[in-house]
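Inputs:
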Amino acid sequence: MSGTDRQDKGEAGGGTGADWIAADWGTTNLRLWAMRGGGVVARRASGRGMSGLAADEFATVLAEATQGWGDLPVVACGMVGARQGWIDAPYAAVPVRGQPRMIRVPGQRVWIACGLSQASPPDVMRGEETQLAGLLAARPDFDGCACLPGTHSKWARLSAGEICSFQSFMTGEIYALLARQSVLRHGIGEARDDAAFDEAVADALSQPHRAYARLFQLRAASLIADLAPDSAASRLSGMLIGWELAGAKPYWLGHEVVIIGAPALSGLYARALRQQGVTCLLADAEATTLAGLHLARLQIGETA
Amino acid sequence: MSGTDRQDKGEAGGGTGADWIAADWGTTNLRLWAMRGGGVVARRASGRGMSGLAADEFATVLAEATQGWGDLPVVACGMVGARQGWIDAPYAAVPVRGQPRMIRVPGQRVWIACGLSQASPPDVMRGEETQLAGLLAARPDFDGCACLPGTHSKWARLSAGEICSFQSFMTGEIYALLARQSVLRHGIGEARDDAAFDEAVADALSQPHRAYARLFQLRAASLIADLAPDSAASRLSGMLIGWELAGAKPYWLGHEVVIIGAPALSGLYARALRQQGVTCLLADAEATTLAGLHLARLQIGETA
């Protein structure tokens, strides 16, 4: 992928040879790629996520953000398709084929990927379905589990070209709330104590209820036992990831796991899973998203 | 207690017959009682908690807040004795006698209760030690467990007039963060669905790792299964309290439990514990605090 990448220096546009635009339009960010087939011609990013936009602002924001790239079809995924987004792209219920279901914005050359839902246990995703499609495009015979760590981590079971089931965890959001807004914030630094992380993962996995009891101990140990802020951060991170692994065990136990996410966070999940003897592969999140959007682009085909 | 209570209507003061002042000076609130022996003559409250005050402001705030009550000794508990408070009242390590350890503010007729610490597992409390003292003053032979639900719930093992061990849980703070600041906030109402609460407690107690996995399901179920906001709130509350009970099991299993806290919250803990066949008593939080401060006042005695 990186061989075909280059930054947009203003001269990009229809003249660059791009023939479509890929968009990952999330809650807080908008990321755009001018694409030629499966290759990136230029990229842009802004903070104009869906949460700050009214339904009638999306078209203008998109036009401004893609200025100079020519009048090209746009294929998007993410919260732009939520009820509070541009249009409500209804959920497709699992099990589904990996290929994303797309819905066209009326009057626009814009297509948005539908999210996925699961009736029992109740769950939803928006955006990650496109990454799962990208993974299955690259590995159609993949039989295993995908882990997408983030604000709301997702675990998905993939088999025979289908997304069979999935489960979400609030780990990223809970970490941020505890580390920055709770009483723990006074003693939380950067998470870079591997031994503390490993120990907390193992504890939380083997005794989940004790991990809950141990949250306040991070505060107490920083007050009376000089627990270092970096160790406290690693313990908190390990505790929450260990908890998540305990809950997600039916997904990873006995399966190959592909982790799709930001490199540092993916590395922590891989470290925790490898402790449990699980075989993990790390996939590049951007490349996987673009592979999924490219698949959708091919599916839309001539209608665009 | 309530028989001797009356609101301060401005005429209270040395002339009311008060002979000391009780203070519960926490992080966000200051509560004051003009006392005659063990009885309340007048009460006041303000939002001038320790977190908004510099060390040199406490004396002025106290003088203003007790104006008209005469020049009386003040016996205080709570975060006023923290490192960031008026003076650092050092922790006393458990096991300790129930009687609170008091430290005098230099140059003032003010005494502050020392908090408690525990080396292993590391834990601290400030303020609750005074309530435990109050409980032991009323029931010197109590052999069981005290549960003090709140922002940071405390469980303490009491026996032979001593506080033997204790453990803290962040349940109240985590509930507030999840219900008001996380993605769950969109679907959380008032917790008043008893059946949903009971079910969530039982689930979390029997399968603590599943409770973590079920947090995001509250969001998903409100999106795709019309989960009512009041039921979602009760489920979240039950999930967290059930988790806490799972971690605190060595405290309550086979013991009598006295719950000291705000009535509504204490009622939820009692409901959850009684599901498990535990005998619970509810104690009035204010009365228990004042009993502990009165015990401290008697101990200080003539030096005041």
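The radius of gyration of chain A is 21 Å. Flag for discussion at group meeting.
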